[in-house]
Here is the input.
Amino acid sequence: QSVLTQPPSASGTPGQRVTISCSGSSSNIGSNTVNWYQQLPGTAPKLLIYSNNQRPSGVPDRFSGSKSGTSASLAISGLQSEDEADYYCAAWDDSLNGLYVFGTGTKVTVL
Amino acid sequence: QVQLQQWGAGLLKPSETLSLTCAVYGGSFSGYYWSWIRQPPGKGLEWIGEINHSGSTNYNPSLKSRVTISVDTSKNQFSLKLSSVTAADTAVYYCARVSPPLVPAAVHYYYYYMDVWGKGTTVTVSS
Here is the structure.
């Protein structure tokens, strides 16, 4: 049911910069802010970025978010081994009576 | 620091009703909306719905006919019921706090995000 499209995988070596894209539509990303969640193996998702580009307390500044039109992206600079996880974008969708939609998810592998 | 503790039956038979509860510790309950999200094995996240302290709810249209989310403000708890379960409802179910708090509806849905999550409950539907 995901209406936000992400690449299934991304990878990089330690220290590299990795970027993950998230494509939506006018009813979700085009109308509302984008959030990103990090899910380490076997754990609950964790809020990584909110309101397009804001980091919660404790999230390293290696993580940054941006939004343009109906697309958004997450960048991880200075990739570290502990960044190996699944990443999901999300936004409220104004279609029908409204619902919160997640992206398809991207598995980041540190080579 | 806010913590969410969730519990409920982990093994159900087809056609039974899934029932989970999430308790909120260490923070304000009435100022926020509270939500349920699920994740089938090896798949992505799906928003189930939300509720606030006064019982106002919003459900995913794809599940609306089978879902009931309720709140018990005396215990700072909220609950999920999903009726007529099938194998397709097998998933890890998470409860979460929705932010930002105490804002008009338009602002709530514009900025909508989950900033505190429970650890998840694995629910398996099998005959």
